Amino acid sequence: MHQRNSDETLYELVATLASNAAETNLALRNRGEAELSVHGLTHDVPLTDENKTYHDARASAIEAAEKIIAVLRGPREVLLDISFQVRICESYHRDPFS
What we know:
The protein is mainly alpha-helical. The chain has one domain (10-92). It is built from two helices and no strands. The chain has helices at 10-30, 52-92. The longest helix is centred in the last third of the chain and has 41 residues, at 52-92. The mean pLDDT is 80.
């Protein structure tokens, strides 16, 4: 069963990520599909009751990964990244002929 830890220490977040990634891979193997990989194909697993465990574990793994990145980066880097993303968005919306 997928897990979500309320403790947000780095160790607990990594444990949550590992546990849910393993559960996601098990669900993929049971479907006869390749395991998760940065070089692999994306998986199109339908949202059905039969696949609920896969989707719950995947969502928990993504949530833990996002929190790990935030913990490792710290507040300063997060603010710099947001600022950079805002500037990129603004540059896309400028009139190039003005």
